[in-house]
């Protein structure tokens, strides 16, 4: 109990003030660590007072045990059902915005290992990470020091039942799959010297980064190389789209510590950037900063490496 109370204290700043009630809450949720964490975060957010939360959990507990329709034989299943009931109650006390509901809904399609928060935000066309960060604060979305996000299995189960994810509802996230299931040539067509891409380029670039996050960089690189060839054939190898694909290739090679290839693709990208943004040197500087900020933990100093990559 003491260890779990200390855990609650980490997330709920007034735990000591309401210690007797907090300890009863811990007991009511059968000392499940994740349930204790969610309860503490809920209290910290001011959504419920300790007494209100305790009463709600006790009512839910009584209702669960009196439900004749629930017939569970094995102890393991009974424990899981009780645990699910506690988490479900805590989840229901939050009023999530429509944006947060959509995020949770789409996250049901993610692998349990999670993906980069920034990549996921790009997929959903979110302008900022604010909504994702708010969900992290609630405890519903889990994160690591590298900003990889995922849903706790129990939260995923509840989200599936609550939000009813579907291809239609989650079409923005799933569109990239349709793009890759058909030949990229069919979605990138030349017309009057213009490249009509219907968002295919950013989708494929994001997918390549996703594959890299999932330890499949070779597949991601292959998709980007095909995309580079298509852009070059139908448009040019001196345009902004081509530069962005080269930058993504350079980033993946940098993440996998293949410095010679990273150098080649970064130099191609920045050569185009410097030409297009001749009168906007701050844009070049912003590109340096963007890469430095996105990948600070890949094993070596990006700032020094980028400088040497582009000048040697």
From TrEMBL:
* A UniProt-annotated Pfam family: TPR_12
Task: Please list the residue ranges covered by the TPR repeats.
Answer: 243-276
Please indicate if the UniProt record lists Heme as a keyword: no
The superkingdom listed in its UniProt entry is Bacteria
By its UniProt entry, which InterPro entries does this protein fall under? TPR-like_helical_dom_sf, TPR_rpt
UniProt keyword RNA-binding present = no
Which terms are listed as keywords in the entry?
TPR repeat
- Return the PROSITE patterns for the record: TPR
Instruction: Write the protein's name.
Output: Tetratricopeptide repeat protein
Q: Which organism is it from?
A: Coprococcus comes
Upper taxonomic lineage: Bacteria, Bacillati, Bacillota, Clostridia, Lachnospirales
């Amino acid at each position: 109990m003491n260890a779990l109370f200390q855990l609650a204290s980490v997330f709920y700043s007034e735990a000591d003030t309401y210690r007797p009630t907090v300890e009863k809450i811990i007991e009511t949720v059968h000392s499940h660590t994740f349930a204790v964490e969610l309860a503490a975060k809920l209290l910290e957010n001011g959504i419920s007072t300790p007494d209100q939360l305790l009463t709600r959990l006790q009512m839910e507990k009584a209702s669960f045990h009196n439900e004749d329709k629930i017939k569970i034989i094995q102890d393991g299943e009974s424990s899981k059902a009780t645990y699910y009931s506690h988490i479900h109650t805590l989840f229901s006390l939050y009023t999530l915005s429509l944006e947060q509901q959509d995020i949770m809904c789409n996250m049901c399609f993610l692998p349990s290992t999670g993906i980069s928060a920034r990549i996921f935000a790009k997929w959903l066309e979110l302008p900022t990470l604010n909504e994702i960060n708010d969900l992290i604060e609630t405890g519903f979305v889990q994160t690591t020091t590298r900003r990889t996000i995922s849903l706790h299995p129990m939260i995923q189960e509840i989200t599936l039942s609550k939000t009813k994810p579907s291809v239609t509802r989650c079409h923005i996230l799933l569109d990239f799959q349709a793009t890759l299931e058909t030949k990229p040539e069919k979605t990138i067509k030349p017309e009057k010297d213009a490249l009509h891409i219907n968002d295919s380029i950013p989708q494929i670039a994001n997918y390549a980064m996703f594959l890299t996050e999932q330890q499949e960089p070779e597949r991601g690189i292959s998709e980007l190389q095909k995309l580079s060839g298509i852009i070059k054939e139908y448009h040019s190898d001196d345009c902004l789209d081509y530069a962005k694909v080269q930058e993504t290739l350079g980033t993946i090679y940098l993440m996998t510590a293949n410095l010679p290839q990273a150098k080649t693709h970064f130099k191609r990208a920045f050569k185009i950037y410097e030409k297009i943004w001749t009168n906007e040197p701050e844009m070049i500087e912003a590109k340096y900063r963007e890469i430095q900020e996105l990948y600070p933990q890949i094993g070596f100093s990006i700032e020094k490496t980028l400088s040497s990559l582009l000048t040697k």
